[in-house]
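User: For my dataset I need records formatted as: sequence, then structure tokens, nothing else. Please produce one.
Assistant:
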Amino acid sequence: MNVRREQLSIDPEKCTGCRRCMIACAMKHHGRIDPGLSRVNVIRLESQDLNVPVICMACDTAPCIKVCPMNARIRQANGTVTTNPDVCIGCRACVYICPAGTPRIDPYTGRTMTCDMCEGETEPWCVAACRQEKALTLCPTGAVSHRAARQAAGRTKKFHTCN
């Protein structure tokens, strides 16, 4: 299996809450403007005056893979962790065990869906949709260390990005 070539860097300080990333994701995967079909979820943290794009970061240990009773959660060749919709029964075990709760529920099928980094595209559509704000950027593998990401998650100023 190939190691994932890129990582997504998220900078909530730059996110305006426009949700263009969500619309782009829904368009890419479902061909329609429906934020409910997005694999990206922008949450608003009122207490910190932040909008935070939340996307599956394909954990190294990926507890969602281990907990799935149907083995519907799989690691792709590009390193992402996705759901095989033909096997998923919609039990949501992956949602409950995910440290960030990133698997999204398809409101029409009840099955989970997560970021596949727009496999086959030159860059994820969410990154392209956020080009002006740069709250979402694509970085080379290793540019965003786990330690830096954890430190950034614990504070609201001076987030680490790959730029």
